């Protein structure tokens, strides 16, 4: 059976908040104001924070992919130069 969706469940609650802090995700406008509890226990818009965390992860992976592509291009240029020197000798 082919699975089209990612079966890995996204984090929720306190785990989601901790992951967002670890990734440096802005939490502006996420928490609903409540003067009687700390921000970790106040109600918040979970779907919006999950979207921000997904976006931060995708950005991190895109940066990594770009670096790998650049290293591959440099290796190709070095290989081409080595091949030219081998042919010219």
Describe this structure in words.
It is a single chain. This protein has helices at 13-23, 46-88. It has one domain. The mean pLDDT is 80. With 89 residues, the protein is an all-alpha fold. The longest helix has 43 residues, at 46-88. The chain is rod-shaped and about 75 Å long. It contains 2 helices and no strands.
Instruction: Encode the helix/strand succession as letters.
Output: HH
Strand percentage: under 5%
Largest sheet: none
Q: Helix segment count?
A: 2
**Uncertain segments:** none
Q: Decide which structural class fits the backbone.
A: mainly alpha
> What do the pLDDT scores average to?
80
What's the number of extended β-strand segments? 0
Tell me the Rg in angstroms.
Answer: 23 Å
Count of structural domains: 1
Name the helicity range: 55-70%
Shape: rod-shaped
Distance between the amino and carboxyl termini = 57 Å
Tags for this entry?
single chain, 89 residues, mainly alpha, 2 helices, 0% strand
Chart the SSEs and their pairings.
Blueprint lengths: L12 H11 L22 H43 L1
Helix pairs in contact: 1-2
């Amino acid at each position: 059976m082919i699975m089209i969706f990612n079966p890995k469940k996204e984090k929720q609650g306190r785990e989601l908040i901790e992951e967002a802090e670890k990734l440096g995700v802005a939490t502006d406008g996420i928490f609903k104001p409540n003067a009687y509890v700390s921000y970790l226990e106040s109600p918040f818009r979970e779907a919006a924070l999950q979207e921000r965390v997904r976006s931060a992860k995708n950005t991190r992976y895109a940066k990594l992919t770009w670096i790998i592509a650049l290293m591959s291009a440099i290796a190709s240029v070095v290989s081409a130069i080595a091949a030219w020197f081998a042919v010219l000798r």
